Amino acid sequence: MSLKEKIFAGKGLIKAETVLENCRIVNVNTKEITKGDIAIWSDFIVGIGDVEGQKGQKTKILDLKNQYVSPGLIDGHVHFESSMVTLTEFAKRSIRHGTTGIVIDPHEIANILGTRGIRLVMHEAKCSQLDVFITVSSCVPSSPFETSGAKIDLSCMKKFLDLKYVVGLGEMMNYNEVISANAGKLSMIQAALDRKLVVDGHCPGMHDAELSGYMNAGISSDHESVTFSEALKKARLGMKIMIREGSAAKSLEEFIPALLREGISLENFFFVTDDKHSGDLIKGHMDVIVRSAIKLGLDPIQAISMASINTARHYRIDQIVGSISIGRRANLVILDDLETFQIKNVMVKGKINPKARKMEYPDYVFKTIKYKKIHPDDLKIKSGKNVSAHIIEIVPGKLVTKRCVEKLRTDGRTVLPDLDKDILAVAVIGRHVRSGNIGLGFVRGFGLKEGAIGQSIAHDSHNVIIVGSNFKDMALCANRIREMQGGIVIAKDNVVDFLSLPFAGILSIKSANDVDKKLKNLHNKVKRMGCELDEPFIQMSFLSLPVIPSLKITDKGLVDVDSFKLIPTLCS
Questions:
Q1: What DSSP state is assigned to residue 379?
Q2: Which of 14, 16, 267, 507 could form a disulfide with 8 if both were Cys (CB 3.0 to 4.6 A apart)?
Q3: What digits encode the pLDDT tens for the residues 188-213?
Q4: Is residue 489 within 8 Å of residue 518, measured between CB atoms?
Q5: In what order do the strands lie in the sheet with 221-222?
């Protein structure tokens, strides 16, 4: 659609395709409810208020009978891959819940398939119903302490920065390289800034001089604040704060009441999920966050603003989406009730219930698990005497981990897990090349009393991670994952159950309902084996992310994130 056509549609010389009459409009520009009609032509809002002159004989009239109309919601930072379904399926589910736009960082796919994976995602985005905005993955791999399936450097990144719907540089997770002025990382940031693109951050626990250095690089947002006080300090320094409410990491219940108590202005805060499991996606998306924020005391218009215009302004896409304004995309949520945010209908690009085009995926996405057959001995740390070992300690519901040192016994040859102390063995198997890399360690917090669980989802390089009470069952998990070319496996003397994830080893090509049903079965079986975590597979997937404190494990070994170096599992 040309500018001339938009002007003529606004003047009524080209008649509207659709008019929504008798609306109560949620105006996030002025934070008020206004009454009027909304005229839509092509994908855009071309008139608001009295639009009689824009109606024609063929204009479709929808009388909303005083229902509320909200701008479509935007997830400001999400890795759709964590839903374990394709982008097409993710989009289909999201729209039902009022999410009409998402800002994705496709670094899960990028760590496995590199630039061709990013291009594949971009192609699928064009076929989806959603508005998909992209931040180009900046840390592939996330650190030098892991083996990924690809590397994204400046030359790779530049292939994408000038493309339509690319809105920034994805979260700069390797904050140590930023504050130490690594030339490669700074050149990536500079390339984005030169194009007036946003550079998103990732800096859990960072403060004082290091935070000043990090922000001076041009990084303008963060979604990793562990506490509200940390988030508030960053906001006061000028950072945009993403309030994350995903399947694993949740901050809404702490942050919203605290913001209200402090009387803080909210325009520099917006909502994101970061990671959304398929079961949670079926229940809702950004609508769940808006609804929860209202229940926590936030004014409904403010809650909607934090899921729409605030996000759009951060990414400088507010001339396209984020509000019910002239010339913006006709992405609208029709509500029966504002306080409870009960959704009646969703309109995307001027269409109610839009359909996606079917995607065909290339063969290479189904051939990504490349390690040799695993034997129990491959997963053992050898020692002839009792030892002290560094232990990763899970913090339920958080991505950060704690750490401790514990004495472990041996059988005269192998260091053993200690179920009485809730200490299990953990292994990360390199799967992208036949390197033979296997990182070995111990973890506390699963509560598993028998068997093992494993998966080919292990942020961010997505090697295969196995946690278990014994090495035989751990090897069974690893070998079934290899046979399936990706998935989640439970073993106890034999393979008990599994979820196949053949697309790059992290996605199913089935529906979210199918994935959720299978995951629920897996959760039930893991709980019967003693696991005490609400989301064991998500928690396990983040044990290998070496840019979130404090102790993590990769295919190269145990990573002390605080000192940013590899350390031996056994204490000297």
A1: G
A2: 14
A3: 999 999 999 999 999 999 999 999 99
A4: no
A5: 221-222, 240-244, 269-272
Under DSSP, is residue 394 helix (H, G, I), strand (E, B) or coil?
strand
pLDDT mean over 69-92: 97
Strand, helix or coil at 347?
strand
Please state, rounded to an integer, the average pLDDT across all residues of the chain. 96
Query: Cα separation of 108 and 429, whole Å?
Result: 17
What's the mean pLDDT in 162-184?
A: 95
In angstroms, the Cα distances linking 85 to 268, 456, 545 are 31, 14, 21
Mean pLDDT of 357-382: 95
Question: Which of 437, 442, 440, 436 lies closest to 421, judged by CA?
Answer: 442
Task: Give residue 12's identity as a one-letter amino acid code.
Answer: G
Pick from 222, 304, 231, 292: nearest CA to 262: 231
Query: Which two three-digit tokens encode residue 295?
Result: 């229940």
Range list of H helices, 247-387: 252-262, 278-283, 286-295, 300-305, 309-314
448: pLDDT confidence band, cut at 50, 70 and 90? very high
Strand partners, 424: 443
Quick one: how many helices (H) and strands (E) in the chain?
16, 26
The DSSP result for 174-223, as a single string, is -HHHHHTT-HHHHHHHHHHHHTT-EEEE--TT--HHHHHHHHHTT--EES
CA atoms within 13 A on the CB side of 567: 21
Q: Among candidates 216, 176, 223, 234, which has minimal Cα distance to 200? A: 223
**Opening angle at CA 98, ends 92 and 101, nearest 5:** 70
Q: Provide mean pLDDT across the span 113-118.
A: 97
* pLDDT, mean of residues 353-361: 85
| Both tokens assigned to 490 | 């439970």
* Order of strands across the sheet that contains 565-567: 551-554, 557-560, 565-567
Question: pTM for the full model?
Answer: 0.93
- 128 or 26, which is more confident? 26
Of 245, 253, 241, 184, the residue nearest 215 (C-alpha): 241
Q: What is the pLDDT of residue 353?
A: 80
Go through the chain and tell me how many residues it has.
572
Q: Which residues contact 527 (CB under 8 A, 6 or more apart)?
A: none
Task: Give the model's pLDDT for residue 357.
Answer: 82
Rounded to whole angstroms, the Cα distance separating 243 from 82 reads 18
**Number of other CB atoms surrounding residue 230 within 10 Å:** 19
The pLDDT value given to residue 248: 77
Beta strand pairing status for 332-337 and 60-71? Answer: antiparallel
Please report the pLDDT score of residue 215 as a whole number. 98
HEC-encoded secondary structure of 43-70: CEEEEEECCHHHCCCCCEEEEEEEEEEE
d(CA 24, CA 32): 10
> Dmax of the chain from CA atoms?
88
pLDDT of residue 46: 98
- pLDDT category, 398, cuts 50, 70, 90? confident
> How confident is residue 169, by pLDDT bands cut at 50, 70 and 90?
very high
Q: What domains can you pick out in the chain, each with its CATH number?
A: 3-70 (2.30.40.10), 72-318 (3.20.20.140), 365-567 (no CATH)
**Residue spans of alpha helices (H) in 204-339:** 208-216, 228-236, 252-262, 278-283, 286-295, 300-305, 309-314
pLDDT at 249: 84
